[in-house]
Write a structure and sequence with these properties.
Length: about 450
């Protein structure tokens, strides 16, 4: 299956950003890698390794992308050239995972690569958070010639120390240096590119953690149990160091899914107890936390204002920050403000249907010894999607390519099970659409009342 190395290469580019780490790769863009994925898919198709499969999930997200393009054409046609590549990248990642990975063995390879990437990023984040702080000259500084950006070698314990002997007019931070040229921001660990926001790094790690549980469940050995425990500790430590409150909640939600499966409702208490260190040590407090909350409420208020002014098409896909200084800080409200009610329902319906697939798979495969691998992967993806929904309430993740990768994994698992059991079907019916629409309405109304009371 030729598409596997192509997908691993694409994931490496998206997660690790080698073009930002190594100067020799600065000119590398994602388009040759996407072309590589397309080529390998075509070759697999021509040689019979893969075939096109029907998928309601692809229909929903394909329609969603089409609606996004329509809104840009109507509301911001001059920005079409900027927005379409972003949408196409996310959809291509989804499509070629869902359609190109057509066996459980291939799916396990993809999932364990993502598991290794998540663990690697967690280790990097912990190393960064433990490193001594030093003076860091930020990108937006007023520079003099031949003064490089980044760390200048001077140690510090607080930001004010960096201005004594620093570049006149420069903007400094007292930050943690990390591997691969990374640096914290306001003391919060992060990575580069798609994961340079500490909140999104914490979210991505929470999404990847369930694959460790699946890896252990495939073959229960002492070495895999040790890896699982170490992975939970390292991931939780990194999430704490990101100081991300949404990341904490996502991690607890992920653990909660597994504890509830094992201990039923008593697992909720077990998950809270297991997550106490994260709750007690992670996140921000004081004025910084209050300021963050006020900013989020302000963004939510702006999202509703944009929707009221543009009740059908929204302001256009990717255009929220053209109307407000910050993004929406809520994936649901972001789609409502940018895409109107149609885009809002389509995006929510896609996430809902992905969850429905893995839940139905759990029920369908229950008690069958020959389906342990598929059942374990379905459980892992369910935990990942629950973590996604929790973070989506606080982060603008609607178009994030990592989110679409996980939706693609759900489609791939569904197709792999259908390959062995052609009679198994999960359909998106009118009652599903009605449920999603009702949920969206209630969710929006609750937030309207909440924002009105708080602002």
């Amino acid at each position: 299956m030729l598409i596997l190395p192509a997908l691993v290469t694409l994931f490496t580019f998206l997660y690790w950003r080698p073009h930002q780490v190594f100067e020799s790769l600065h000119s590398l863009t994602i388009y040759p890698l996407l072309a590589f994925v397309v080529l390998t898919y075509v070759l697999d198709y021509r040689t019979g390794w893969t075939r096109l499969r029907r998928s309601p999930l692809l229909v929903l997200l394909g329609t969603f992308v089409g609606w996004c393009i329509v809104t840009v054409l109507i509301k911001a046609p001059d920005r079409l050239g900027e927005e379409v590549p972003k949408l196409v990248t996310s959809f291509f990642a989804l499509f070629f995972i869902a359609q190109g990975v057509q066996s459980l063995r291939a799916l396990k390879v993809v999932i364990y690569v993502l598991m290794a990437f998540s663990l690697g990023l967690a280790v990097l984040g912990v190393e960064q958070g433990l490193s001594p702080t030093a003076c860091y000259l930020r990108d937006d500084s007023v520079l003099v010639e031949d003064i490089p950006l980044g760390f200048d070698g001077r140690s510090c314990t607080k930001r004010s120390q960096c201005y004594d002997g620093g570049v006149t007019g420069g903007e400094y931070g007292c930050e943690h240096p990390g591997w691969l040229g990374t640096a914290s921001i306001s003391g919060r660990v992060r990575y580069l590119g798609l994961l340079e926001d500490p909140n999104e790094l914490a979210w991505a790690l929470s999404m990847g953690l369930p694959f460790l549980f699946s890896f252990y469940e495939m073959t229960r050995s002492r070495s895999r149990l040790a890896l699982l425990i170490a992975g939970i500790v390292v991931t939780a430590t990194c999430v704490i160091m990101t100081q991300s409150r949404s990341g904490q909640l996502s991690l607890l939600a992920c653990l909660g899914v597994y504890f509830i499966r094992r201990y039923r409702w008593g697992g909720v208490l077990a998950a809270v107890i297991a997550g106490l260190p994260v709750l007690l040590l992670g996140g921000r407090s004081g004025e910084e936390a209050d300021s963050s909350t006020e900013e989020r409420l302000g963004c939510w208020n702006e999202a509703f204002a944009m929707y009221r002014e543009n009740p059908f098409f929204g302001v256009g896909s990717g255009q929220f920050t053209q109307h407000h200084v910050q993004t929406a800080h809520d994936a649901f409200l972001l789609t409502l403000a940018e895409l109107g009610p149609i885009g809002f329902v389509l995006w929510t319906a896609a996430v809902y249907f992905a969850i429905k697939i893995v839940v139905r798979l759990q029920i369908h495969l229950a008690g069958r010894e020959d389906t342990q691998a598929a059942s374990s992967l379905a459980m892992a993806l369910l935990a990942s999607l629950v973590a996604l929904v929790v973070s989506a309430v606080f982060l603008s993740l609607s178009y994030h390519v990592i989110l679409w990768i996980y939706l693609g994994l759900t489609g791939a698992l569904y197709g792999a099970v259908q390959k062995h059991d052609p009679d198994f079907r999960v359909r998106f019916r009118f009652r599903d659409l009605a449920f999603v629409a009702a949920f969206d309405l209630v969710f929006a109304l609750v937030l309207v009342v909440y924002v009105h009371l708080k602002v």
